[in-house]
Amino acid sequence: MARDFKKGVIERFSCVLPVTDKTPVITLQEGSTPLIEASNIKKELGVNFRIFLKYEGMNPTGSFKDRGMTVAVSKAVEKGAHAVICASTGNTSASAAAYAVKAGIKCMVVIPEGSIALGKLSQALIHGASVVAVKGNFDRCLELVREICESYKVELVNSLNPFRIEGQKTASYEIAEALGRSPDYQFMPVGNAGNITAYWKGYCELKESRGYAPPRMMGFQAAGSAPIVEGKKVEDPQTVATAIKIGNPASWQQAVEARDSSGGVIDRVTDEEIIKSWRQLAAKEGVFVEPASAASLAGLRKYLELGKMDPAFTGDVVLILTGHGLKDPDIAVETVSRPPVVEADIEEVVRTAGIE
Description:
alpha/beta, Rossmann fold, four-stranded parallel β-sheet, 10 strands
């Protein structure tokens, strides 16, 4: 019997995407990521509302970027582009490199020196991308690639590319499909702010087409990298959550519009709160994510502790987990204990393992 491969984002959602019969479908069968009910965390937090985890780390390259990249690269090929370029803190570079390989075109990546997790950088390199590290932060890298695109025949595939936003909005549709409606609240990390922009676009379309009331968009930046919260560019952003280590978000205004239109917030959480939630996701729900993903749970915990969320509320809350934990294994290696070493003796193994 032939294997039943799942469809990718473009095939599943072509009716709401800017594609035609002339658009080549460059896909790695992205999307259709799990929406996991976090019953153990719900119990630990002592709340009545249901908590769901949209685990985008299950995309082909391990992050939500694949949703937008399939559309951006497909449209680039349709246009006749022979190369794509991006600035990246990690996930975008991995995704762009993989989809460029699939399309048979070149990929160039500009990264900030020393500010990208090795797990992400290795992906871009193994896919054959031309990677250049710049002495500067992500914002300077983005400025450079935008300037390059103005003078050379190469297509930009950062979230400034509207096709990226179109692809990423499909996660809203998947959540609504699973719940039968849009959630009441959505908590998510905010870095370059393209993702919150995309989700909000999807929910607004769902309101218009199906009458689903959109959720309150609850976005969280890292405390050391919170330009939207502070209302000004952060020249030297600092955070353990490298995926959201961005001082001047490209989609800043759109994120503010999503916040204001939904009655939501864009706030900050500390690195300590992020790591605590990162550990909780792994220990309580068996979900291993990159640190930036845990900003969503950290935000929920913060708002419960501050009394800004009613624990007796009985609706649905979705936490967006943007990337897999293997994207940033260094943090895990640094924070876990080494296993004890014992003799190859059954009694000693049983005793040390705590088997009763």
